[in-house]
Amino acid sequence: MAKRDYYEILGVGRDAGEEEIKKAYRKLALKFHPDRNPGDKAAEESFKEVGEAYEVLNEPQKRAAYDQYGHAAFDPRSRAGRGFHDPFELFREVFGGGSIFDELFGGGRTDPTGPQRGADLRYDLEITFEEAAHGTEKEIVFNKLDSCGTCSGSGQEVGSKVKTCQTCGGRGQVVTSRGFFSIAQTCSRCGGSGRVIEKPCRDCRGTGRREKRATVKIRIPAGVDSGNRLRVAAAGEGGVRGGPAGDLAVVVHVKPHDIFERQGDDLFCEVPVNFVQAAMGAEIQVPTLGGKAQLKIPAGTQPGTVFSLKGKGIKNLQGYGFGDLHVRVLVEVPARLNAAQKAKLQEFADLCDGEVNPISKSFLEKAKQFFR
Predict the structure, then answer these.
(1) For 245, which of 117, 229, 234, 331 could close a Cys bridge (C-beta 3.0–4.6 Å)?
(2) What are the tens digits of pLDDT across the range 12-70?
(3) Cα 153 from Cα 184, distance rounded (Å)
(4) Taking the domains of the chain in order of start, what are their residue ranges?
């Protein structure tokens, strides 16, 4: 099925400015968010579609490419195809997390005394070029705030009671009047929760959370590249007062390779051959990520010639097969020659005297004005 036009999806014109595009996205993202449409597959697909359109039209470079080439500019089967970010991650980047996010789906101001979702965390993971190409499994270790094991996250000792804060009257805020102005500040006694624990837990001091060492195993799919994000649900900080945990975003960073350079799903490398192999033709061995491969060099191969090995590149992250390996031939000239070699080369030069090769002929035609 043909993809819809991104401007049509957001309901904006092609001359729409940044603010208009963002405003349209916010409206539609809220309308189709799965939390507001539980079990509605059509709404979920629309939510993803809106996120994809916004990601392209909100970035000047991507928008310029889309305006020129359309959806082909982001075809994952093309060399530059990188796919799109997680639509939920994009949503959080635009709307933010914490209480603002909760308000959007809570129908009003969140209850400061109720459960609160834990913060999302980011982890930057460096992997090797080969691990990115073949996929791997990593175990990451980091510190985070998690539910206190002593009080099970309640923040209070066994048998202790929770009382309404007398300072703020349970509102979580203290209002101070200064002339014509009234200033609301977070209550210093209860920290904005509106309640005071009679006997706080001795281990977490009433917060309900403690810093812990967390270990998470994550599967890195074949084909990831630097900048790709992998989302691990509920692996972020623990919630407050029984609230759900946040998510963990693992940002991938791929180390450069000694031989290969990556562009999209294609690989590029340079392989040296000697003068005889280039002139007479040869079959040489070239490196690939899966081992060695045979490459036939035809007679008369010129320096800089590029040969392609189909399917020897990187696996496409969206499942569209593999990219290609492009091998650029470098003709290596001997740095030292012995007497016998010099004599043979001179004999060869004498045999070639008067011959003009196509490249030399073309150059001489273009440069003849400089040799007058």
Answers:
(1) 234
(2) 999 889 889 999 998 998 888 877 777 788 888 898 899 889 988 988 888 888 888 78
(3) 28
(4) 1-110, 112-161+198-256, 261-371
CB 120, CB 204: distance < 8 Å: no
**HSE toward the beta carbon, residue 22, CA cutoff 13 A:** 9
- Which of 241, 40, 218, 194 is CA-nearest to residue 121? 218
* CATH code for the structural domain at 1-110: 1.10.287.110
Phi and psi (nearest 5°) for 23? -65, -40
Q: On the CB side of 19, how many CA atoms lie within 13 Å of its CA?
A: 0
Alpha carbon distance 63, 288 (integer Å): 35
**Which of the four pLDDT bands, split at 50, 70 and 90, describes residue 75?**
low
Cβ atoms 159, 231 nearer than 8 A: no
According to DSSP, residue 325 is labeled E
Yes or no: say if 237 and 145 are a contact pair by the CB < 8 Å rule: yes
Q: Distance of CA 145 to CAs 209, 260, 359, Å?
A: 6, 41, 68
CATH of 112-161+198-256 among 2.60.260.20, 2.40.100.10, 3.40.1550.10, 3.90.930.50? 2.60.260.20
CB atoms within 10 A of CB 341: 11
pTM score of the predicted model: 0.64
